[in-house]
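anyone seen this seq b4? input:
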Amino acid sequence: MKFVAFERNKQGTGASRRLRNTGRAPGIVYGGNGQPQLIELDHNALWHALKKEAFHSTILDMELAGKEAKVLLRDVQYHPYKPQIVHVDFQRVDAKTKLHMKVPFHFVKAEESQAVKFENCVVNHVMSEVDISCFPADLPEFIEVDLSGMKKGISLHLSEVKLPKGVTAVTHGKKDPVVVSVAVVGGEEPTEAAAAVEGAPAAAAVPAAADAKADAKAPAKDAKADAKAPAKDDKKKK
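predicted toks r here
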């Protein structure tokens, strides 16, 4: 993808605010063999470009002062409640230096899997993107994940995902994270035998509770009778 940027001479909070009021978005380009350079872009053009997945995960052609440079989008800052871009960062790309960035997963053929078609299951996407390392020429726009082989009770791990040539996954210390899991819709209903076993303790507890209640009341009645007996005997003596 290609976009046009313009040189920006003024910097600072006030200058950036005035720039945004004129329909421009402030930004910066850094890395590579050059010095960091302040830039500005047309806000509306940038806003629509950011809605495209490729703008976030592919190498971009930036035209600046009549020259083109290969860059990657590195960061975007948005206004907390206005539909406005506050600042954008780009990094220059060196063909001989490996990149480290996030690339989205594209999940396909889940509806053709045994889990979905025959086993009343749904496929949960545990990861939506992955960190990768590769040279700029090998950078994929996305990584496709085939889910046609998913079955009930099976999870798909990152080591099972086929990565493009020259691409290595970066797991940040995690041994083999789960990418996709399978769950039964609504959960499995218990069998009749299991329900009977689960209900037995509750049923047995009802008579036991009744007996305990009866035993608790009995001493109270006896104590009441014993308390009245001496009073009657004393009355007869008088």
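Residues 56 and 169 are 18 Å apart (CA to CA). The helical segments are 13-21, 43-49, 53-57, 114-117, 192-237. kinda curious what u guys think
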